[in-house]
Amino acid sequence: MFHEIRVPRDASCAAAPPRRPQATLAASFERSGHSLHSGRHATVRVSPAPSGHGIIFRRRLKDGRCVDVPALWPYREPQPLSSAIRREGVLVRTIEHLMASLSALRIDNALAEIDADELPIFDGSATPWCQAIRSAGRIEQAAPCRVIRVRRAVTVECGQRRLWIEPGPGLHLTGHVALAYFGAIDWSGSLSPETFEREIAPSRSFGRFGRAMAGRAYGCLTRKSFLQGVSPRSAALLVRGRVLGGMRVPGEPVRHRILDLVGDLALAGHPIEGRITALHTGHELNHALVAALMRDEAAWDLT
Fold this sequence. Notes:
alpha+beta, lpxc deacetylase, domain 1, Ribosomal Protein S5, domain 2, eight-stranded mixed β-sheet, five-stranded mixed β-sheet
């Protein structure tokens, strides 16, 4: 069970910096690959969209219908080891890496059309999405980008897991995890497109090799869509104190937790300004923080 903690409003926030205009892609791009949980092949086409559109996923169904699912927190649905949204009974899952890449590279408006219920996992990182976005290009639009500016701290926690956001300029993230055989792993920094691409995007989804293979076997035996695409090619798999094939970046596990957090925060619908500290966080706690923040309208301003 998640517990929400609120503190008195902080009236000492610094003046807001100048705002940037909204932006979209300069051209469409298409990427295909196998999915982490279903193991099935999926194709995603991401296209420019007008100001105020936001990020919307369009599922193309087998009967020819298309259903649009906005990437917004009220549509979020719990799914194991992924972020998912659902509308009119139509599910789109494992959206966090694309959402993080669009958010960090400051793409506010886009339409993502998909022919399956789950996005490709590629190598488990966000780098393929970042490369596609960079290749497509970015163009600014006439409307200003509205920003969620945190005015007072909001905290959610579940056991040893704790996640909180407090006022501060830009978006600053601090992450901490402690893993058996690895010990404490930390990362802290302000998020910019360059920082995200260099230090966060290359980090891969991770898990213990034995547990991942057991989960894959469970999904196969029960015919459930769970970890059917997991392998050393799609995730950083841990064996005692090492990563099969080695780490891509120092402290890769905590950096991937930051990656997922950036993607989950994007479901707020606008960029968020504040300082976030994440202790052993995961998707459930990330979404709990977004919901707690958005429901506490006195804790933020939409500038």
